[in-house]
Amino acid sequence: MGQPPTTRRYELLCAIMLGFGHLSIMVGYDSGSFVLESVIHSINERNPDVISKYAGYYGQAVMYILYMIGCMFSPSILNEVGSKWILVASAICFASFPLGFFFVNSNYYYFSQMLLGFGYALYYQGNGGYMTSHSTRKTIESNVNIAWSIGCVCLIISSGIFAGVTSMAHAPSPNSNFSKNSNFSKNPELGLENWVERRFSDLEIKLLFGVFFGASVLGIVNFLAAPGKDVTDCIQETKKKGTFLGSFKQTCTALVDRSMLELFFLFSVLGTSSSFWLSIFPTAMNFTVANFEMTYLCAIYPLGIGIGEIFMALFITQMSRRHKDFCFQPAMILGTVFSILAFFMVHVSTPYDSPHKPTREDALWFGHSYFFIFLIGVTLGIGDCCLNSCRSVICALAMPDRRAQAFSISKLYQALGSCFLFFLSPIIPLYVYTIGISVHLIIAMIFFFITARRTQNMEKKNDENEKNEEI
After folding, report:
1. Number of folded domains in the chain?
2. Is 360 among the domain residues?
3. Of 46, 115, 121, 322, which is the most exposed, with the fewest CB atoms less than 10 Å away?
4. Residue 425 and residue 431: Cα distance in Å, rounded?
């Protein structure tokens, strides 16, 4: 039997295909999250008996509960079947969700959310396993950011999908004969029952989720075609170690490992912040009645995020080649600063009650515009890319003997943060998010520094021991 390919070109191919698979399935998931609550709200307005108006939030909360449960078992499944096939299975789960919007049914909706949650756990376990089995210590930071930058193109594609579908199928609101500067502003007595927020037509919904389903199928094909052989000197080999139950016990003990407890704040803030940016803030934009003329906000917002994510991923890739451990303290500082800046921009420009109901309230300083929403997206994308890069690298290095468990626990704690947020979303005002998550980010940065420094010292000690053995 020949040795696995060890060329840098082979590693790049694996990173590119992993990134493209991420792109394919996340076109559907991330894009759907941007508009899910608004879409559900629109369906409920036309057919109140079909589905609850807050099913968008509650469905995602259910999804994250299954995500947490899946995270407990996904390392054991990875140990049994390997990273490639776990990625294929996860893509199938992702494809099941958009199908439900061709025949909206509350029971199938929640079932597909449960399936999506389990698939989400499988995907990120497979993603981490595939990356560590197709990277060396020298290339892990670069490969992570290459795959991430390709995957984040999904946000730019999402922008194009939203713009195209909106231009073809968007139905004018019942009050489109008014403008913000005419009857609406002069007649505040017009209630929300007469003046509506951004709504999605049935045709618009079917076109959007049809494209999302097609993208998920493309992801299945991509993962089937992805190379399966490990590189030599990889961080983690793809081979079965121990039993299913033994792997599960390792996951349970890793839950209370010192490093994982310190990183809890980073993992959980990734859950709360990503849920806010993917679902709650886009819903707030759509529920702000003053934005009724800006029908392309759903296209501009992911475009900004995608540009920010890709720019920062390429920047981190270059900096990681020049400076070892750039994905530790430097990237964490950048991620925290840019994320808090994005929350501040939302805080001053968005009505406080817009996350949970249509509103005509004024923003703190000024309202939204296409350019400002684009700027928020770019700022968010830069911060989010840094934080996710830190998470991917620290999980690969902080627990060398239990890497699969580290990746799984990171997602379990992330899902816990998301689940908590979505269950409370129908009642939490905007300012609780913007201030609370910003404080959470600062705490996460402090504890991340502690773990990063200990990991660096551990690696330095291991390198010295290897040199002494060679002598």
Report:
1. 1
2. yes
3. 322
4. 12
